[in-house]
Amino acid sequence: MKTLVELKALREKSYKEMYLHGVTNGVRIQVGYGTCGIAAGAKPVYEAFLSEINSLKLDNVEVTQVGCMGECAFEPIVEVLESNGSKTIYCLVTDRIASEIVEEHIVKGNRIDKYLLSKIKR
Amino acid sequence: MLDRMHILVCGGAECKQSNSVALRDKFNSEIKRLNLGDDIKTLLTGCFGLCALGPHVLIYPGETLYSGVKLDDIPEIVEQHIANGKPVDRLLFKGEFDRKKFRNRSELTFFARQKRIALRNCGVINPLKINEYIARNGYEALGKVVTTMTREETINEVKKSGLRGRGGGGFPAGLKWEFAKNSISDQKYVICNADEGDPGAFMDRAVLEGDPHSVLEAMAICGYAIGASIGYIYIRAEYPVAVKRLDIAIKQAEELGLLGNNIFDSGFNFKIEIRLGAGAFVCGEETALIASIEGERGMPRKKPPFPAVRGLFGKPTNVNNVETFANVPVIFLKGADWFKAIGTEKSSGTKVFALGGKIANTGLLEVPMGTTLREVIYEIGGGIPNKREFKAAQTGGPSGGCITADSLDTPIDFDNLIALGSMMGSGGMIVMDEDNCMVDVARFYLEFTVEESCGKCTPCREGTKRMLDILNRICEGEGTLEDLDMLENLAYMIKDSSLCGLGQTAPNPVLSTLKHFRDEYEAHVIDKVCPAGVCSNLTNYVVLENCIGCTKCSRNCPVGAIEGKVKEKHFIDLNACIRCGVCKTVCPVNAISTKPEHWEVA
What we know:
A: alpha+beta; 4-stranded mixed beta sheet; globular; B: alpha/beta; Rossmann fold; Ubiquitin-like (UB roll); 5 domains; 5-stranded mixed beta sheet; 26 helices; 18 strands
């Protein structure tokens, strides 16, 4: 990396990979993986997403770790980003809920309202 | 104050290019022109995720979404919609986009009211992938600085932005850089202070775990500006996740040539190493931190000479905190003027707070300087659970003090907090309600400083210990009025005569609680009563008339001190009671009180 032009080319390429996953119906699942998330059980959740996505062979879906979103009291938090622009935040997720999210939300396209951060929040 | 209306203008990078700041300003000026009142709030929010159709404007209540808004459309929106409540049909968002799905994130005040600069990538990118940082304009600031700007220009930009150190003192970062630059030496160093030690503060950890590259990039920019080729990150070993991610981040940046020799072909070399600390609070003090990196025992040194003149290994050194660094790349990407426009006149930018204690949304939030405590606690923080009353917020950790209910509407910035007898500190904010005893809170912080005092100077080593003895006496019910005076005298003496910041600020929690809650101290020493029901020697538990006789307290009491039949009022045998508070916690109807005015009723 020696020039700003090179950096910008890499930026554009990375941006597309990050948000579109190279396809038009891409989905990005972000699991909060800061210390707060890990302490609340993000690891089994992350693994559950990975194994569900692998077993269903959904290659348009990317599962990724991210840092703390700030709502530490409601970890593990999972955000689902879709290439149509929608963002959904699920909170207090367990590995069981993770499988449910994949089956209902990712496969069938039905958001599961009862796990939404905006619904659970006291 | 509750706002009547919120106008959210998309401030995402894409919409920014279509002039969202001007849009927001136009809204403000139109609202002012039509005199629509000051209870309409305009906000720049994060990306709405529909960039192709931007810029977007979302209006609450009613959640009306306008897209492709131009400056000329704004008078119409304000006159028709804001003033008369009729949405402007032709600008309404039309498309197959599922509004319900989109609502989820922005309908949460927690996100909508924040402005994320230091935390811009936290929870957004994968911290293990440098590509995702680059996708969000990462390392562009470094590239721009080393290829197009001189060292003077770089420092002037930071000075112009008004960025102040986020680690506690609030010293202007640009000035600090300039001092280090002006020192002449064959070798200089940049240190990132990641020794976050305040009880209840975890924002540096979140930045390092969620966005490690932003700190690396800023350290390299600083290195270029002051003429340093080596950077150290001093981080406590208690943050294993952050250490691991930093380590990975450094390797990735080196692989791409963003750290190392001849960065961006400019001839500038910079490498970064990690140094682990053992978790001593005093090592957050810069001279003690430097001693620790050198392999010495972590003890502060006399200033001057300041580290900018003689620091690490005797060479000029610039030390900044994690959050300070995390702001730096954004200043170069968006310009010092942009940064300066956020916050208040003397404290520009934003501040990250770690909210803890009696608060619904425990977590991290980032707000512009000048936001009031009321907004932070009640709007973003979600208020105090269990219908309790707010009593005080503690900021600045063991070096800070309390902010009381009277000051809820004071805008939070460096200078206002000092005027209130507290300080910004690193940004830990602990909320306390009526169930917190302020004497006990002061005792908690002092216990912490007694443990963490390095022992080098006598006032801090001995003085804080004696203060703690007095506080222990008061909490046990053996304090006298003279004790209060002695406590205060001792506190001022320690402040005036300690060597470093730790000792100089250690008495602050005591002084601040003495100032604002002297009545509680007096209740402890004169009436021998702890009004909050925390100090067990000075508390009685009684059952009130609204007891429903559910027997829960009696079943949970560890010493069987509560008697009573089902559906009848219960009684506590105060001779057997050990004041553990379990009954109060389990009571479903709040029928157990420690308030002195109830003692006689029972």
